[in-house]
Write a structure and sequence with these properties.
By secondary structure, the protein is mostly helical. The protein has 14 helices and two strands; from the N terminus they run ααααββαααααααααα. The protein has a single domain, classed as ABC transporter involved in vitamin B12 uptake, BtuC (Orthogonal Bundle), CATH 1.10.3470.
Length: 377
């Protein structure tokens, strides 16, 4: 009796890559997982383009791209966490805390035990502010990986901690005028750089593209990406295989915090202000983008491509509802329904796939029994 072996698709390649592997037929379920977000995006664009002539104008598309970029960058960090089977509810608050730190650094830092005030350079402000977001992520990862605390509880608590620190730093006041800096202090150029539009696209869109490329390389071309998919699929098996599970868990939350810190800087430049409510509900939009993009909340499945498309689905849907005059209250209802639908479709597809695999296993067992009986006879 001959045995046929197939080479598994590379880790992180996703269902589409598996469907294209030699010796495998096209898997309709894999195509649906990869393509459902794109199909939803095309339908949304078609519907709102018919309802409004202003929907596909260049100005509106630029506005959508800018807003989508913020959500997409956060969602890429969330993708890393969800691939591991975790969750990060603190990213929105980390965005707000980053903005508050940046605003206070522009105001100047009182040096202890002196009457002097230090005004950092612009690049120092950016690095320190983003580092605060990474610090929030590192604390999340440390508590989850080293103390084995539940990600939901840790990040929920950090949501309140970071939001509270944001309000403490701002003391109920928005920071606006100080953000332009002072030529004498050498900290000008914030809006010129971070609110600019290179080649006609908002800087946030270019950052989104950069992060998408880097994260895609990390997931598909590096050992860390393989470790991440392995720990998300089966943490115990990955640990027995020599994967540094605790290190992976810590790093993904640091990456999530990095994304939140970068978005905090970009958002402050976008609205020309540092406010206490900056970044609210970003965590929900990020989770929605990842789920709509085909990732499994249980971990082990998801892609950068799907996450970016999922972010565009939310962005185009929200913008279309505004343009056609839907009430903000109904917008929340519709957006929530879309998220529930995406999760329901994912679960249905998993059930169908499990049943198909079970039927194949039974058929293979029967075939093996028949071959064994024929050989012995």
């Amino acid at each position: 009796m001959s045995t046929t072996t197939t080479t598994p698709a590379p880790a992180g390649a996703g269902p589409a890559a598996a469907a294209k592997s030699p010796g495998r037929s096209l898997n309709l379920n894999a195509v649906l997982v990869e393509g459902r977000a794109l199909i939803a995006l095309i339908i949304i664009i078609a519907i709102f383009a018919l309802l409004s002539d202003n929907y596909l104008t260049a100005g509106n598309l630029t506005t959508i791209t800018k807003q989508v970029a913020f959500n997409a960058i956060i969602a890429l960090g969330m993708l890393m966490v969800i691939l591991n089977g975790g969750i990060d509810l603190s990213v929105g608050s980390a965005v707000g805390l980053t903005g508050a730190v940046a605003g206070n650094l522009f105001r100047g830092v009182d040096l202890p035990l002196t009457d002097a005030v230090m005004f950092p350079k612009l690049w120092v402000i950016v690095i320190l502010s983003v580092a605060v977001g990474m610090l929030v992520g590192w604390l999340n990862g440390l508590l989850i990986a080293r103390l084995n605390l539940a990600p939901f509880i840790v990040t929920l608590g950090m949501l309140y901690v970071a939001r509270g620190l944001t309000q403490v730093l701002l003391n109920g006041q928005n920071i606006t005028n100080e953000l332009s800096g002072d030529p004498v202090l050498g900290n000008t150029g914030f809006f010129t750089i971070f609110a600019s539009r290179p080649l006609g696209l908002p800087l946030s869109a270019w950052v989104m593209i950069l992060f998408a490329v880097v994260f895609s390389i990390i997931l598909t071309r590096t050992p860390f990406g393989r470790w991440l998919y392995a720990t998300g699929s089966n943490e115990r098996a990955a640990q027995l295989s020599g994967v540094p599970v605790k290190r992976v868990q810590t790093r993904i939350y640091v990456l999530s915090g990095l994304c939140a810190g970068v978005v905090g800087i970009l958002q402050v430049a976008n609205i020309s202000s540092s406010t206490a409510d900056l970044g609210q509900f970003y965590e929900l939009n990020a989770i929605a983008a990842v789920v709509i993009g085909g990732a499994a909340l249980s971990g082990g499945r998801g892609s950068v491509r799907g996450t970016i498309i999922g972010a565009f689905v939310i962005g185009f849907l929200a913008n279309g509802l505004v343009i056609v005059g839907v009430s903000p209250f109904w917008q929340q209802v519709i957006t929530g329904a879309v998220i529930i639908l995406a999760v329901a479709v994912d679960q249905i597809q998993q059930i169908v796939q499990r049943r198909r695999n079970a039927r194949r296993a039974v058929a293979n067992a029967r075939q093996a029994n028949r071959e064994s009986a024929a050989a012995s006879g």
